[in-house]
Amino acid sequence: MSVSITIIGTNPPCPRCAILGLLVQDVAAEMGIEVAMRHLAFGDAEAGAIAQGLGLTAGTAGHVAQRSGLCIDFDRVHDLIDHPPAPQTLCPEAGGIAAKWSPELDAALRPCEEIAASVGILMTPVLVIDGRVVHAGSVPGKDALRELLAKA
Questions:
Q1: Which of 8, 39, 96, 112 allows an S-S link to 64, with CB 3.0 to 4.6 Å?
Q2: Residues contacting 129, CB < 8 A, separation 6+
Q3: Beta strand pairing status for 121-123 and 57-59?
Q4: Dist CA 116 CA 102 (whole Å)
Q5: Hey, is 150 helix, strand or coil?
Q6: Could you tell me the domains of the chain?
Q7: pLDDT (tens digit, 9 = 90+) per residue, 46-84?
Q8: Which residues lie below 8 Å from residue 98, measured CB to CB, with a gap of 6+?
């Protein structure tokens, strides 16, 4: 079984976009699923077309905050990236920028995730499986990824 995976995120990848790719690869390998993975920047034409198909615009938490007027402490967000509170355990072998992801980082951006669609934004990271958007705005856990891949 082969599954086409697209992750829409930032370029270069942020910690959330980077770890999502690693998690998908790990879970797919556990399940014996071959994946063809690619990453798109949210500003790429193809990412825009995917978002437009949902009546949205591809963007980041920053775009959501700006469009909605939501007050997010982005200094804290950057501090969480620069100094993760603890080693992340979701994907222990992750290195580089992916190692800087933490549940606290997703929690700090959750208010943006919760309102993104209502302000017209498909918020990164976006997980597309076989051409269908299945998750956006945060890093799903391994159990959720297993369910999403099993449905593919």
A1: 112
A2: 3, 4, 5, 148, 149, 151, 152
A3: parallel
A4: 21
A5: helix
A6: 2-150 (3.40.30.10)
A7: 999 999 999 999 999 999 999 999 999 999 999 999 999
A8: 13, 15, 18, 19, 21, 22, 91
